[in-house]
Amino acid sequence: MNNTVSLLITSPHPGLVSDIASKRPGWRILSLGDVPPSSRLEGKVWGFIDWLGQSMSGLEMCRRLRESEATRGAHLTMVLEEPSSEAKRRALLAGADDYMVGPLDVTRLLERIESLGGARPSGRQLLVNGPVSLDPAAHQVRVNGRVVTIRPNEFRLLAHFIEHPDQVFSRAALIERLGKDGETIDERTVDVWVGRLRRALIAEGAPDPLRTVRSLGYVMDSIEA
Hints:
Elements: E1 5-10, H1 14-23, E2 28-32, E3 44-50, H2 58-67, E4 75-80, H3 85-94, E5 98-101, H4 106-118, E6 127-129, E7 132-135, E8 140-143, E9 146-148, H5 152-163, H6 171-177, H7 188-203, E10 210-213, E11 217-220
Parallel strand pairs: 1-2, 1-3, 3-4, 4-5
Antiparallel strand pairs: 6-7, 7-8, 8-9, 10-11
Helix pairs in contact: 5-7
């Protein structure tokens, strides 16, 4: 398994770069300009995008990163200037996986990456539900044998559902499961994650395995192979 980490940051100040390099010397740190990286990056890719960039908005940068083949699967965190509900909503719609209120420093950056990394399932066992299979070690999802590209939040969400089929989980429980209970997140954000996951699986021919249970949350029904 590739343990390399590539870190994308919009206009990082030199002090932040040196702090990260001293604490995680093996990580590759890239400053984002107007154009996302053109070549595929090694290992896990994490991006921290300022709400207001020097040459473009963070929303536009998120859109460009999602459209680029090299960074489409990166975990993107929007660094907000203030915790407004509208800013959070727009960040998610632009392609961010989550958000945090700035300023960004090395401690908060590492806590965010390592808390989310620790939330991923471990081991080599394949998780399967009907035509959908998930390999935790390879961080890969397949539908009928075809690889499906999904974002980090949706990957962890799918792993949780496959490990606990036919069980209803509230939105609050899912936020906690994804390692996000230490911050205030609108429960409607879960609807965004589930919607993205549904679309990715259905686009590859899988039956919709996620069922909305009114007033309670979501459940993944078992699918016969």
